[in-house]
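Hello again, I could really use a second opinion on something today. My current little project is about how a certain protein chain folds up. You're getting the sequence in one-letter code plus the fold written as tokens. Here's the protein in full, and shout if anything looks odd to you:
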Amino acid sequence: MGRPRIKPTPEAPTTARGRRTRDALIRAGREILESQGWPGFTPEMVAQTAGVSYGTFYTYFESKEDLLGHVVRVVTGEMFTASLLPPDTPDDPYARIVESNRRYLRAWDQASKVVRFGEQNAYTDERLRQLVVEIRELYVSRSTEGIKRLQEAGLANPALDPRLTAIALGTMVEQVSHVIDTLDEAFDEDMIVDHLSRLWASALGLRGAPDEGWNAGGHGRGAQAD
């Protein structure tokens, strides 16, 4: 018997036509994940939706998990860009926290289905796990630097470790976004953003935040104990 045929590892396309075909497969994979979920996410369905042959799928991707990684990278890239603050955002730290949380919630709403599939499969696929870690680091690093700047300006509690604080507060926002989106909790966007932002500011001990000085005798800035 001869040696078994080994399928070559797909490489990035070098022609415009190849790039268009691969992009069409990625778009098709995203469409299927968002509309049908994991059961419908098969090489056959992806190829059919993209309008190419079944064999063409394996010209560009090793498996559906390989394609999932590409879809997750595209979607999370869009999500990260959408969550960035625009240049005209006020310099007020609390206003920036509010706007960051609002943008994250809206970006998460658009990306949540694909991101969750990526996270679930990361438990069994090392490349997906590394991708999830890489994406998470973008948010953690950004928040860590922001917290450091607030501490250096004397506006946030200097005793807090900025990276651990960024991880804790970022996880809070992510999980609240997940619960609201998946479990249909009946809170409107303004209320969610308001509470997440106040919790962020309170955890940081942010000077000038709405709840600065809150105590059991009242609430709001400057409240006094009885």
In short: The two ends are 90 Å apart (CA to CA). Residues 1-6, 216-226 have pLDDT under 50 and may be disordered. The longest helix spans residues 93-121.
